[in-house]
Amino acid sequence: VQLQAFGGGLVQAGGSLRLSCVASGRAFSRHDMGWFRQAPGKERESVGAISWSGGSTYYADSVKDRFTISRDNAKNTVYLQMNGLKPEDTAVYYCAGKVTGHPEYDYWGQGTQVTVSS
User: What is the pLDDT, as a whole number, of residue 90?
Assistant: First the structure.
């Protein structure tokens, strides 16, 4: 599985962006998907995740109630809708996938830069 994330950009605080992550390869629908981010000088952190069916989601406390993860298995795509963006959300955002049941993520996409200006 290969992942490609896009949709980043520059936005003012309070604005919105939607990131997309398109997967190529087989069995995307059997993969749990996650979004991560890494700000300059900081460690990579989990933003959230979605189960293979879309029936279960998880969000980090820092983005809960502002970000929403969804997926369209027919399009091999997972989305990260980001509302109410804050300057501290500035980071490179990555999508990742893992076979359901695996403890670690197996596949990673290239990052997409999100910059939130104050």
Answer: 98
